[in-house]
Amino acid sequence: MNETNETGMEPNYIFDDVPQVSPLITVSCCLAMSILYLSSLYIWNNKHNRDHPATVKRRFLSVTVVMLITPVFVYTFSSQELLDKVPFCNLLGLRWQGLLLAIVIPYLLTVLLFLGPLCVELQNDSIKLFMDIDFWKSSFRNILWIRNHIMAPLSEEFVFRACMMPLILQSFRPITAVFITPLFFGVAHVHHIVERLSMGMEFKTALLISISQMTFTTLFGFYSAYLFARTGHFVAPVLVHAFCNLMGLPDVQELWQQQLWKRILLIICYILGFVAWVFVLPLATQPSLYQNNIFWPY
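Now predict its structure.
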């Protein structure tokens, strides 16, 4: 009798029907991929800071190479039975079934989460900037914008979600995997402390900023991993990651600078957006919507 019947899980969950891989192997692979990704950022002997075009271009090249290497970990250390059952591209979240919904629904779901900040932008008229074609033209000519909104989401989600999740799921249940892989993602962002120190920032300040960033990226990682596991699509966390980078952290200071009645309305929007997101999240990410029986049982 297989694990599906013993645990009462739905019988259409692919990972229930393949041999389990040792957690030591899968966690070690994820650690190796994380180190490989971080090392690629510092492999160059470069005197410029991280925002210099020369540094950015070199890092584009190195993370692209990492994106070509990390699938090898998935293919090499996955059970042969799993590779026989699921096309390898599907295992990486690259598939056609449910693609359109995976593009639209998670994105709108994240817009709902950012209802408060979006309302702040709307009443300040700054949201009109996104309707300006010149803004987008200049953005796509700006290598830092491309890094933050295209290359970073693409490379990070591919390595930390599309390549790590299929491995971790061979050792742990889906909800556990969702809470494991973001830890690699969050810790991976601690490296920014080195860059801040090299720029002359005090250690205490650099440490505080880095810990805050690690906390935020880990929380986002939980959300991103959940989207990947529930939709079975790589595109879902990539678009959400890009949108979150575009929005940035909510500007609470700007919120409190509003007139009292506006401030109250905007706070209500913040609360409504978050509460609605919490309730809609499990409904909008039903695996059956995306024909996903690979990463999550339904």
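Residues 1-11 have pLDDT under 50 and may be disordered.
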